[in-house]
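In response to reviewer comment 3 from the previous cycle, which asked for concrete evidence that the modeling workflow produces usable outputs, we include below a single protein chain processed end to end. The sequence was submitted unchanged, and the resulting structure tokens are shown without manual editing.
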Amino acid sequence: MVDTGSTNTSLPASALRRLGVAPHHKDEFEFADGRIAESDVGYTWVRIDGREALTEVVFAEEDTEPLLGMITLEEMALGIDPIRQVLVPVRKRRK
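The workflow returned the following structure tokens.
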């Protein structure tokens, strides 16, 4: 699932551990319902449509659906086509 309202990519902690991702540090995150929780954070390579990026990932609760957040999308120069509901390449911008 892709969520433009989520900053970080997150996967269930057990899935990240099975992939060999280790926690690097802890951080606080605010949920849509306003609650704040601390979670482990690590780094791993992500591949989408032939693009790869090293990105920060959050070790989420086990019942959490994997979520692709905005930081990873921006690192991979991907955007969302809301009509077709697909990821599309975008040009990176700099000032």
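The two ends are 31 Å apart (CA to CA). We consider this sufficient to address the reviewer's concern, and the full set will be provided in the supplementary archive.
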